[in-house]
């Protein structure tokens, strides 16, 4: 009798908890509370330059860019960014590419940013504060490939950083979701997680983040995978979008003989909703 009463209490509490839980409704299915503020489905045959630039703001002498502090091996070039068949294609190639200070990089690749190329006097293409961000994409597999989709402040500062997704090409079934913050890159701190798909990670997948005033929640294929609810750490400043296909670096490691080039990070769309 006591066991039965205990079980009944447990079931009642469980049902009450489930009844009070807030189920997330995708913004596209909740137009009363959300409105779309940015959308690019990459139509036509060329990149919409009203939405995007093809380098970080420090585009050196207008000849390209990379992230030297990550020891990345690629040099980003606009000719590695293509729009075809309703998709954006960021292509990594194994080719000698002149870069900064006379250095020749072993690889070229592509990236897009809705920020700016240049100092703070140059307008930002698109930025926002709080919202639901979503990308549908296909990921390249191969040692040394490092596709990412992330947010950075419009102030040209390196922190805070919201990494909506990062994937290492030699671990293509694992999605890394991180929030990075700190007073400087040297004092960088990271809160994050990773989710491993039980099935082969091929074809199209959807990566998203819900950035709110008191929490950041990450989704893969419409399912919540991680959340950060330390409200005091959540950014309260405008941020812009970045999608890139890095090659090599301290984390990804260099490509090897098993890596097939060219590699392609193919993006079907990028959308941003904001609560009304």
Short structural summary:
The chain is mostly beta strands and 276 residues long. It has one helix spanning 2-20, and strands at 34-40, 74-76, 81-84, 87-98, 104-109, 111-113, 131-138, 145-153, 161-166, 174-181, 189-196, 205-211, 216-220, 223-228, 239-247, 263-275.
Radius of gyration: 20 Å
Straight-line N-to-C gap:
52 Å
- How many helical stretches? 1
- SSE string, helices as H and strands as E: HEEEEEEEEEEEEEEEE
Any idea what the CATH architecture is? Sandwich
Q: What portion of residues belong to β-strands?
A: 35-45%
Overall strand count: 16
Summed up, the domain count is 1
CATH class value? Mainly Beta
User: What is the 3D form?
Assistant: globular
CATH topology: Jelly Rolls
Helix content percent band: under 10%
Largest sheet: 10 strands, mixed
Average pLDDT level: 92
Low-confidence stretches: 1-21
Structural class: mainly beta
């Amino acid at each position: 009798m006591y066991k039965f009463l205990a079980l009944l209490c447990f079931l009642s509490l469980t049902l009450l908890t489930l009844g009070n839980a807030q189920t997330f409704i995708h913004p596209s299915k909740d137009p009363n509370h959300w409105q779309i503020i940015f959308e690019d489905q990459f139509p036509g045959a060329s990149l919409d330059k009203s939405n995007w630039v093809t380098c970080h703001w420090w585009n050196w002498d207008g000849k390209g860019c990379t992230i030297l502090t990550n020891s990345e091996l690629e040099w980003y070039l606009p000719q590695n960014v293509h729009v075809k068949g309703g998709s954006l294609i960021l292509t990594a190639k194994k080719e000698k590419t002149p870069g900064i200070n006379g250095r020749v990089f072993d690889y070229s690749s592509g990236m897009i940013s809705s920020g700016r190329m240049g100092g703070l006097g140059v307008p930002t293409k698109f930025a926002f504060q709080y919202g639901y961000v979503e990308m549908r994409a296909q990921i390249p597999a191969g040692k040394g490939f490092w596709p990412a989709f992330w947010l950075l402040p419009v102030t040209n500062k390196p922190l805070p950083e919201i990494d909506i997704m990062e994937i290492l090409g030699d671990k293509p079934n694992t999605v890394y979701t991180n929030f990075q913050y700190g007073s400087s890159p040297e004092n960088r701190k990271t809160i994050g997680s990773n989710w491993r798909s039980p099935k082969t990670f091929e074809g199209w997948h959807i990566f998203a983040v819900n950035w709110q005033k008191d929490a950041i929640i990450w989704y893969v294929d419409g399912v919540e995978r991680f959340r950060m609810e330390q409200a005091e750490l959540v950014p309260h400043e405008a941020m812009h979008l970045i999608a890139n296909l890095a090659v090599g670096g301290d984390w990804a490691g260099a490509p090897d003989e098993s890596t097939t080039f060219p590699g392609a990070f193919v993006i079907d769309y990028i959308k941003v909703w904001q609560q009304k």
